[in-house]
Amino acid sequence: MNQKQMRYALDTIGQMFPDAHCELNHSNPFELTLAVLLSAQCTDETVNKVTANLFVKYRKPEDYLAVPVEELEQDIRRIGLFRNKAKNIQSLCAMILEKYDGQIPESHEQLVELPGVGRKTANVVISNAFGVPAIAVDTHLERVSKRLGIAKHLDSVLEVEKKLMKLVPREEWTLTHHRLIFFGRYHCKAQNPKCEICPLLETCTEGKKRMKLPQVRKSKDKAIN
């Protein structure tokens, strides 16, 4: 995809989802970091249901360290990989208390050193909590980027991120992240994408293939009859 095609795609998706935003409920950088950590291999909807109680019971890092890890596990049991995530949450809380006075650090380099925080989580935190432009590539964004030809099918998550950063103006990185996620979550879904009403069908190789399948079958049926 070239710059002109990318501009058209961004403008079109922007019209479809003008109010795209982070759907993880949080009230500060600490809660956002934990919410994103919990969201790995789990839907935002489930995370929000869990954190509705979690963020009332635990207000600050010290609170998470004041209970046995088994209790925290039970509090987040509905989340996938809850045992490992409970350990990471307590380790993260211990580290930010020791190194950052209980505050979530604002730099990407410091964030990725926290237990359970990878590149994607760090990008979400710096962009949503601290206003630093970033593109966090999740499953939705990766799928959409590859379907639309922004990235190649075999590209790694990091390669997808780099290609998006090159094609999208820096001041639009965070907004593009949200809009592409909304596009992937509510329109260009993994199993049942809405190809038949997609305004970007002409730029989507996979979409055009999907739409041609019924036509091929029909022509074969006619030939047989």
From TrEMBL:
SMART domains: ENDO3c, FES. Keywords: 4Fe-4S, DNA damage, DNA repair, DNA-binding, Endonuclease, Glycosidase, Hydrolase, Iron, Iron-sulfur, Lyase, Metal-binding, Nuclease. Its cofactor is [4Fe-4S] cluster. The keyword Disulfide bond does not apply. Its EC number is 4.2.99.18. One of its GO terms (molecular function) is 4 iron, 4 sulfur cluster binding. It holds the Pfam family HhH-GPD. Residues 38-186 form the HhH-GPD domain. GO terms for biological process: base-excision repair, AP site formation. Binds 1 [4Fe-4S] cluster. [4Fe-4S] cluster binds at C188, C195, C198, C204. It is an enzyme of class 4 (lyase). DNA repair enzyme that has both DNA N-glycosylase activity and AP-lyase activity. The DNA N-glycosylase activity releases various damaged pyrimidines from DNA by cleaving the N-glycosidic bond, leaving an AP (apurinic/apyrimidinic) site. The AP-lyase activity cleaves the phosphodiester bond 3' to the AP site by a beta-elimination, leaving a 3'-terminal unsaturated sugar and a product with a terminal 5'-phosphate. Belongs to the Nth/MutY family. PANTHER family: A/G-SPECIFIC ADENINE GLYCOSYLASE/ENDONUCLEASE III, ENDONUCLEASE III. This is Endonuclease III. It comes from Paenibacillus psychroresistens. The gene is nth.
